[in-house]
């Protein structure tokens, strides 16, 4: 068993490279970077700000720390971990932000007919992609069937009343995993911070989720790269200008383990209970919020190229799919995605 845990950095790793260019710097650019959610974040701002970068970084870190305290399954004391550890079925109080994630997850879960499924936690842990260790052997069908009995969005209820937001499960062993949307949530938190501060020229990213607005230090629109689905970190597949929107990519080529020559992706099919095993290797979505983009990309990854494209067209989503072929890779996109491509990319 050779566990491989590179990040699905897809977009964010490319940003420094692509925003540097040869152009002359026309305005100051502030770059803040750090670690969160088992990956990296980046905040780039062009123009003056009313505080020092160090002060801003403290605020950024505090926001992302709060997100970890709320929704990390890697922290035993987070609100989400305590909900997962709770063995009763009474509604439990949850913060507003977590309720927002779950509401969006339920919508996308319905639209993908359960392909995007935040109750997939028992399977994630069984296959060793969660906070627990990698499996030494591939799980047996009996183990998979056992875990599948604990999976199902219908077992999770979000309640909103005068006293706040509540989450209720009707299966004591239900295990909610918000990892798939956490990066997008983090990006939306950073976007809100920029808005509160009146900052209008920024690029913020957490892992493979990115949002941009305005222009960079050269006075040019921020450019974001979709990386080719190879192990080479800097191979560019396409370049987009987000125009104030957010982008997120889910891929099966960076986070996986290998056993006897077979790759096992961290994206799991909630129907079979197994890692996806088709030719779609990456799904990129552009949406008004990073949370939405981050939820859809995983759902589309599970569905595979044909069903994903059909659903994206039906829903009018901006989607870019890369599929492995005998000769290499082929890419398809919806017209809505095409509108974000930089010139000469069509
Ligand atoms: P995505 O494709 O967006 O999501 C894949 C992940 O979603 C899988 O790894 C699995 O957890 C889950 N998933 C799989 N199949 C499905 C499905 N069908 N439907 C819904 N979800 C599915 N990692 C660490 O190693 N250490 C940490 O300390 C750590 N802390 C974290 C804290 C937070 C708040 C969050 C959100 C994540 C954290 N992670 C941590 C997880 C790590 O960053 C994940 O690899 C990442 O969140 C997965 O996102 P992705 O973009 O790589 O893949």
From TrEMBL:
Topology in the lipid bilayer: Lipid-anchor
Co-factor: note: Magnesium. Can also use manganese.
Known catalytic reactions: L-threonyl-[protein] + FAD = FMN-L-threonyl-[protein] + AMP + H(+)
Localisation per UniProt entry: Cell inner membrane
InterPro entries: ApbE (IPR024932), ApbE-like_sf (IPR003374)
Family per record: Belongs to the ApbE family.
EC number assigned by the record: 2.7.1.180
Record GO terms (molecular function): metal ion binding; transferase activity
Function: Flavin transferase that catalyzes the transfer of the FMN moiety of FAD and its covalent binding to the hydroxyl group of a threonine residue in a target flavoprotein such as NqrB and NqrC, two subunits of the NQR complex.
Superkingdom of source: Bacteria
Lipid metabolism found in the keyword field: no
Pfam families per the UniProt record, alphabetical: ApbE
Cofactors that this protein relies on: Mg(2+); Mn(2+)
Binding-site residues, Mg(2+): 180, 294, 298
Keywords: Cell inner membrane, Cell membrane, FAD, Flavoprotein, Lipoprotein, Magnesium, Membrane, Metal-binding, Palmitate, Signal, Transferase
SUPFAM superfamilies: ApbE-like
The organism of origin for this protein: Yersinia intermedia
Major location (coarse): membrane
Signal peptide range: 1-22
GO cellular component, one term: plasma membrane
Protein name (record): FAD:protein FMN transferase
Primary enzyme class: transferase
Keyword Amino-acid biosynthesis belongs to the record: no
């Amino acid at each position: 068993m050779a566990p491989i845990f590179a990040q699905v950095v897809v977009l964010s790793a490319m940003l420094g490279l692509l925003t540097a260019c040869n152009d002359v710097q026309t305005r100051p650019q502030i770059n803040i970077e750090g670690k969160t959610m088992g990956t990296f974040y980046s905040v780039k701002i062009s123009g003056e700000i009313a505080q020092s970068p160090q002060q801003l970084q403290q605020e950024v870190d505090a926001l992302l720390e709060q997100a970890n305290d709320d929704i990390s399954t890697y922290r035993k004391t987070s609100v989400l971990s305590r909900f997962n550890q709770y063995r009763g079925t009474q509604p439990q109080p949850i913060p507003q932000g977590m309720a927002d994630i779950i509401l969006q997850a339920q919508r996308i879960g319905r639209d993908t007919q359960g392909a995007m499924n935040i109750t997939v936690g028992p399977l994630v842990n069984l296959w060793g992609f969660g906070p627990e260790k990698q499996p030494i052997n591939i799980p047996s069908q009996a183990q998979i069937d056992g875990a599948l009995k604990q999976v199902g969005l219908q077992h999770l209820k979000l309640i909103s009343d005068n006293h706040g937001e509540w989450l209720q499960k009707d299966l004591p062993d239900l295990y909610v995993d918000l990892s798939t949307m956490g990066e997008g949530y983090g990006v939306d938190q950073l976007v809100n911070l920029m808005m509160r501060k009146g900052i209008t020229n920024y690029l913020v990213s957490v892992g493979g989720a990115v949002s941009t607005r305005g222009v960079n230090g050269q006075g040019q629109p921020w450019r974001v790269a979709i990386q080719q689905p190879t192990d080479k970190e800097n191979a560019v597949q396409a370049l987009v200008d987000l125009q104030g929107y957010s982008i997120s990519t889910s891929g099966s080529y960076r986070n996986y383990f290998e056993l006897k020559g077979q790759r096992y992706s961290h994206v799991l099919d909630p129907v079979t209970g197994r890692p996806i095993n088709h030719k779609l290797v990456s799904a990129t979505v552009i949406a008004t919020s990073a949370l939405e983009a981050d939820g859809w990309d995983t759902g589309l990854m599970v569905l595979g190229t044909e069903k994903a494209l059909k659903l994206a067209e039906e829903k009018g989503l901006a989607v870019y799919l890369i599929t492995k072929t005998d000769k290499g890779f082929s890419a398809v996109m919806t017209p809505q995605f095409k509108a974000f491509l930089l010139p000469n990319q069509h």
